[in-house]
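Observation: inputs received (chain + zinc ion).
Thought: call the complex predictor directly.
Action: predict_structure
Action Input:
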Amino acid sequence: MRAARLALPAILAALLLAVAPGRATAATPLYAGTGWKAWTANGIYSLAPDSYKIVFADSTARTKLASYYTTPATQVTTSVGVPLTVTTTLDDTPLESCPPRHVIVVHYLYRPTGRAGVSKALACHDTADGSAWGGHLLMDSEYWTSLSWFSTNASLNDIYRKNVVTHELGHILGLDHPNYDRDGDGTVEDFECVVSDAGWLPVECAPNGGYRSSTGAGKFLTAYDLAGLKQLAANYGMG
Ligand SMILES: [Zn+2]
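Observation:
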């Protein structure tokens, strides 16, 4: 591939690189790596290069949750190279329907799955090319209405909140849980994911993971989730 690319006239090669960043070094799409897994089971194989928007189902969702998206949206924009904008827009697309292309609707709901403490991502995908389309993020309001839902330590509790918000966003962008049978006992268990030297799990680890530090709260882990999102972006158009 590289030799063929170099043999092309210079102006054509430059054009190809301009329209297909990331393809020069990866010849085939990848759907899993260390600490990440693409949500192919839900039809998502890639992340489209044009921008995605976060909007809100109502003003309560916006007031409670908008600030939680700043950190992961900045990471996706700057590190993955896919613009992800946190807007103030309200959107009333019903849960049964996919929102417009590349719109992610955030809901603030009490036990959206009927189970205590469980949030859910309803991810849509582009049926033409298998890229992430957007969808609905159903965040369980209990994390906020119950002051110590995750921890009696207030700062740690908020770190967990930030991480679960980012976890659900990761699903919409095309990440599945990267849990695997690390201890070889034949069962893939909760929190059974690769662990970093510092002891952190991928934020996408089920039921939750992420940095347990104030500076890392709400961030996709660089070596795991973020590497996966970068590969999903690189996959676009390769499949
Ligand atoms: Zn999950």
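Thought: report the result.
Final Answer: Confidence is low (pLDDT under 50) at residues 1-21. Residues 33-235 form a domain with the Collagenase (Catalytic Domain) fold (CATH 3.40.390).
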